[in-house]
Design brief:
heterodimer; A: 204 residues; mainly alpha; Four Helix Bundle (Hemerythrin (Met), subunit A); 7 helices; 77% helix; B: 103 residues; 4 helices
């Protein structure tokens, strides 16, 4: 049907084109990312407001372990590199390489999350709890929500890997991989900001 | 369609180069933290913000393909960034103009 042909037309990478000439799925992912910018902008701003309201509890200078967080940051950054390599592999129809890079990205993300969990455990042991002060509450909410986003990203990556093993991911479906990649890179750029604004500048 | 939708993505070599640049920039950030005492906040804070902005743009433009993709995606993303910047601006005003703003 001619009327259906335009909105249902497929994009070059397997998505459904909208009347704007772009994929609906990709547009949806960018809209989500745009709104998430505001979400994390609000959380980082809240942290800055409460940075010095420590109620005689731990302060940023006294509690953050910058060398440890630097290693975590490096790991998350490298996961973005493996993510783009996974995308390049699926676009080149090299599914074996795609699976390797996808699972590598998920493992790097899991390592970052394990590091965050370890860091939280140390903080709690040193008396820095959610209810200790406005500073600690805003810190845990901000970094906790980021960690939740990383966990969701890992689930997406594992789903991609499983779909690939079942033969449901091919170069014709590269846009699905690209959309998951967009989400993953967004999680990375949020951490790039958090590392500087939350960790390095207050302590430095 | 009036606007171009160029899907030519970077090559694997370019992705690796960007990854190396990101690693070097992160190392520079850590170096600024290590040498924070002799350098002072007046140097480290603007330098850290500059390095962060460069890393942010490298990931967004190259890894997220905004440099190559449809303009509409760029607009949607940067509207979100602009709104987040407004929130930052309000917080900054709170810091510099005091509690009179009602925070």
């Amino acid at each position: 049907m001619a009327a259906d042909a335009h909105p249902q037309a497929a994009t070059a990478e397997g998505g459904h084109a909208s009347s704007l000439g772009v994929s609906n799925e990709k547009m949806g992912m960018w809209a989500l990312i745009g709104s998430e910018c505001l979400f994390f902008g609000a959380l980082i701003s809240t942290y800055l407001i409460y940075l010095n309201r420590t109620n005689d509890g731990p302060t940023a200078t006294g509690i953050f372990d910058i060398p440890f967080t630097s290693v975590s940051t490096f790991i998350l950054l490298m996961s973005s590199v493996s993510m783009v390599l996974a995308l390049a592999a699926v676009q080149g129809d090299d599914l074996r390489q795609f699976r390797v890079w996808t699972i590598a990205t998920a493992l790097l993300g899991a390592t970052f999350l394990a590091g965050q969990f370890y860091e939280f455990t140390l903080f709690v042991a040193e008396g820095m709890k959610l209810e200790t002060s406005p500073f600690t509450a805003s810190f845990f909410v901000l970094t906790g929500f980021h960690g939740l986003h990383v966990a969701i990203g890992i689930l997406m990556l594992v789903s991609l890997w499983a779909a690939s093993m079942g033969g449901r991911i091919t170069s014709g479906k590269a846009e699905v991989v690209e959309n998951v990649g967009l989400y993953w890179h967004f999680v990375d750029i949020v951490w790039i900001l958090i590392f500087t604004v939350v960790y390095l500048i207050p302590v430095g | 369609m009036a606007e171009q939708d160029d899907h030519s993505h970077p090559t694997v070599g370019q992705y690796v180069e960007i990854g190396i640049i990101l690693a070097v920039l992160t190392s520079l950030e850590v170096a600024l933290y290590v040498f924070r005492e002799p350098l002072g906040r007046a140097v480290t804070t603007p330098a850290l913000l500059f390095l962060t902005a460069v890393k942010f743009l490298l990931v967004v433009l190259w890894f997220m393909h905004l440099r190559f993709d449809h303009r509409l995606f760029r607009r949607v993303f940067f509207v979100g960034v602009a709104l987040a910047t407004v929130v930052f601006g309000i917080v900054g005003a709170n810091f510099y103009l005091g509690p009179g703003l009602g925070f």
